[in-house]
Design a protein that fits this description.
The strands form two sheets. Strands 6-5-4-3-8-7 form a six-stranded mixed beta sheet, with no helix packed on it. The chain is globular, with a radius of gyration of 14 Å. The protein has one helix and eight strands. A hairpin with a 5-residue loop joins strand 3 (about 15) and strand 4. With about 90 residues, it is mainly β.
């Protein structure tokens, strides 16, 4: 039987970025991360793969991933995105 939950991530769970934008729903679980899919199977489909350590929490039942639309702009400008500068726990 296929695993339905791992590390607090469930198949079918919605995923959003730090800005609150929907990234899609969890469609696959792996040892190191999970797959997210947005769109119809034949049109406008986008697949993402996220690591479990990229999850910053759960908001209104949706996983919040440490990604943001502004991250690409920061990277393009030669900087480090704010989402990547998370302090390590003591």
């Amino acid at each position: 039987m296929r695993e339905r939950e791992r590390n607090g991530v469930r198949i079918g769970q919605p995923v959003r970025d730090l800005d609150g934008t929907a990234l899609g729903k969890v469609v696959g679980l792996y040892d190191w991360g999970f797959a997210v899919r947005r769109g119809l199977p034949f049109l406008f489909r986008h697949d993402f793969v996220l690591r479990y350590d990229e999850v910053r929490g759960v908001r209104d039942g949706a996983l919040v991933a440490a990604r943001s639309a502004g991250d690409l702009l920061d990277l393009a400008a030669g900087g480090v995105p704010k989402a990547w500068r998370i302090p390590a726990p003591p």
